[in-house]
Amino acid sequence: MRIFDPHIHMTSRTTDDYERMAAAGITAIVEPAFWLGQPRTSVGSFTDYFDSLVGWEPFRASQFGVRHHATIALNPKEANDPRCREVLDLLPRYLEKDGVVAVGEVGYDSMTPEEDEVFAAQLALAVEHELPALVHTPHRDKARGTERTLAVVAESGIEPGHVVVDHLNEVTVGLVRDSGCWLAFSIYPDTKMSPPRMVNILREYGLERMLVNSAADWGRSDPLLTRTTADAMLAAGFSEDDVDRVLWRNPVDFYGQSGRLDLSDVEKEATFAGNSILRGGS
Amino acid sequence: MTTLNELRAAVPAQGWLGEALERVAGDPGAIGRLFPAAGRRVGRDALADVPGWSADEAARVQLLAALPADRVAAEAEGLYRYGDAAEKRAVLKALPLLPIADEGVPLLQDAIRTNDTRLVAAALGPYARHLDDAAWRQAVLKCVFMGLPLSSVDSLDERADAELATMLRGLVEERQAAGRDMAPDALALLDRLKGL
Ligand SMILES: [Zn+2]
């Protein structure tokens, strides 16, 4: 089984996690730029973080046979801090990097006017750099936050197929499905989404444009929950091809729109190991 | 040492690269967006005629060399500062081929401080002649420590001295005490330094 985790914050994880992930079949990941738990107070701490997302972290991942890509953005929470706003001027440099496959995480935290402005500006950057966008939905006031998110996306002129809306649940899945955007679900212990609930959503809404991630970070989270979800799908009667579609081909198709996804190393290994089949389309 | 002309012959200034070189010569600031795109435009294959170099590196060196001479040091510093690992590596490898004196030394020092073996190796090319002896010895020792082949160190035998031999012997002793192996190329170097 091959698994691509399209949203995981490896900066906050240990080397043991990389080892366990590789052993579980998780050999490709995307790490979105986000909040570190501790507020940043200057632009320099953003650039050092972005540098590690395109330098050190891919190197660390490669030691375990895991292919690492990143998304770059000013996150919604810190968009409200005037000390951090200047980082917007530096984003174009990072959005040209080979390992950067989307603009993200962007979106809303508390739905302030500052967040509106920064969200729209970064969707424009995605269009300019011909990159997809990873949009986070707020944890509080989620349903209305998701509606407003979709309105901003529509207004920006970015193609809905170039946008993934993340951290969805039973209440927000229908809205996003109708918008034409991709749908992502973060499998998180106790809170956002669980493997059994995820299986039910896939049964009800199908596999098209569906992404499943662990969103593992510095909080109580688990980098192996993508694998757990894959196992739960099989147990519920989904085929191996269905699992491969949701947990490998869908994220490859979404981030592949950047033209920068390079999985040549891990796909070669998967072929040599003989445990996965490289399929073209579905 | 690899020359600029060898890199130009291996990755000729045609198509995207030709246009990019012209742009950079006239508008040096344009290199900020062209430099990171080089791998996607010219590919990343190893160059058969220039061992140890890849196509993107050859293109990036040419971009740096196309800058007006008085802009080279500052642009190289910025490209390194904001570069991903492949860009940083290309800047480090370009340093000995550019019209600069020792302005690039802080970049070498930064690379040697990292734990990224690709950067440490790239810092020990011909431009490392600008490092003082103490920094150079520490860098060579770090190579051995990280398991990097010593073939990546330029002018190793010319520069290796009694002090480096003492440091390497210390590492051998530690490794022996721990029941761990020492890389054969490091032992061979120690053997060559025996008389010192
Ligand atoms: Zn996240």
TrEMBL record, chain A:
- Superkingdom field: Bacteria
Q: Which Pfam families match?
A: TatD_DNase (PF01026)
**Which GO-annotated molecular functions does the record name?**
hydrolase activity
Cite the InterPro entries for this sequence. Metal_Hydrolase (IPR032466), TatD-like (IPR001130), UCP005295 (IPR012022)
* Gene3D superfamilies linked: Metal-dependent hydrolases
Q: Which UniProt keywords apply?
A: Hydrolase, Metal-binding
Q: Name the protein family.
A: Belongs to the metallo-dependent hydrolases superfamily.
Q: What is this protein called?
A: TatD family hydrolase
Q: List the source organism.
A: Phytohabitans maris
From TrEMBL, chain B:
> Which lineage is the organism of this entry classified under, starting from the top rank?
Bacteria, Bacillati, Actinomycetota, Actinomycetes, Micromonosporales
Q: Return the protein name.
A: EboA domain-containing protein
List, alphabetically, the NCBIfam families matched.
Answer: EboA_domain
Superkingdom of this entry's organism? Bacteria
